[in-house]
Each structure stands twice: as structure tokens, then as C-alpha cells.
Amino acid sequence: MRLRNVKNAKEIILNNEMVIKNPEKFKKNFKSIFHNSNEIHIEIGTGKGKFIYEMALKYPSINFIGIEKYASILVRALEKCENPLPNLRFLCIDAKNLEEIFDHEISCIYLNFSDPWPKNRHAKRRLTSPLFLDIYENLFVDTKKIIQKTDNLILFASSLKNLNNAGYKFEDISLDLASTDIENIETEYEQKFKKQGIKINYLNAIKK
Fold first, then answer.
1. pTM for this model (two decimals)
2. Among 36, 21, 118, which residue's Cα sits nearest to residue 74?
3. Which tens digit of pLDDT belongs to each residue from 165-189?
4. Catalytic residues
5. Which end of the chain is more exposed for a tag (fewer CB within 10 A), N or C?
């Protein structure tokens, strides 16, 4: 997602109560942020925040953390949260550094319309590459669960291959999510693609 730089984005983030500052100090104890022992789900690349905010509204007994690398984009997500939710927080970090933040604390990872990096020489940058799947191994509490949505078939095929090779089993796979009865909260991208008649690929992968 490309957005214009937001003036004072870092300062806005620093002063927002929904953003976790110095997250390394909460490693192994992220539940203390939410003051409960509920599951923690993360969305990597949270974009403008529609998905993660509506998920937190719908599932108050689950804790959600939206992760976004770029400060200017995260500011847009924060703007959606006019009414702060007790089960929703945000982090402004690069996904490559997730092992420095979490240690066997996550129950589910959402990957919604991640950068597909379609060229073969960039394949390792995809969020379902072996490099990132290895990072995720140490984030999960026990059972590992990854849910992905994308309009890009190259990324989707790569994800299916890499997840299978890493020992994941698929609970659901669809090349046209809108035609299924799978429960779904749409992202901003998804709504845009839907209007254009673009089909959405979906997978729900589990590793025990």
C-alpha cells in the first residue's frame, strides 16, 4: 500500500494510546497489555485498519494487534479508531523483527493483500516465504494458524507450496472467496477489487 507521507506521523503514533511503545519489554507478557488471558491474533500489514478494527469489534473475547511497517499508513489506521477498543492495539515495526517482540504468544496470523513481490528474485520477501514461516514458528503459542487473502495468483500459489512444505494442513482454500459461505470481514482493498469483479483467493492453514 502506497500513501503520501503524513506530516508528524511518528509523533502522532508516539502520542496515541492504542500504539504499543517499546514492545520488546512486553515479550512473553503481551497479555498484560490487555489485562486478560485471551488469545492474541495479529494482522501483518494492517494497512488502513478496517479489517482489524472490525474484527476487534466483532470478537471482544480475542485480543488483536495490527502490525504496520510504515508510520504514515499506521496513522490512517488510527484515524479509524475514533472509539478505542480494549482488545485492539497497534505496532509500528517491520515483520522481519517479530521474533524480537513475541515469544510463543500468538494464536493466529492474518495476511491480507500483502505485497506479492511477483518477481522470482524477490520471492523471499513474500510474507509466506520460508524465511518468514521460520520467523512465525516461534511466535505461536502452540497450534499455528495462518489465514491469507490475496488477489495475486502468483503469491497465492507460492503460499500454498511453502505452507505445505512447512507442514501446514489446509482447512479451507478458495479461488473465489465471495462465492463461499466462509465468514469474512472485508478489507479496503477487498471492497475495491470486488467492485472491479476481481476474485479473491483465500486460505486457512493449520499446523499442530
1. 0.95
2. 21
3. 999 999 999 999 999 999 999 999 8
4. 115
5. C
Given this model, what pLDDT does residue 113 score? 96
114 lies in which domain range?
A: 31-207
Helix (H) or strand (E) holding 192: helix 188-195
Q: Measured in whole angstroms, how far is the alpha carbon of residue 57 from the centre of its chain? A: 16
For the domain that residue 168 is a member of, what is the CATH number? 3.40.50.150
Cβ pair 63, 141 in contact under 8 A: no
Task: Please give the backbone phi and psi of residue 164, each rounded to the nearest 5 degrees, phi first.
Answer: -60, -45
Residue 18 lies in a domain: no
The DSSP call for residue 156 is: H
Return mean pLDDT, the chain: 94
DSSP strand pairing (201-207 vs 144-150):
antiparallel
* 154 contacts 188 by C-beta, under 8 angstroms: no
Number of domains in the chain: 1
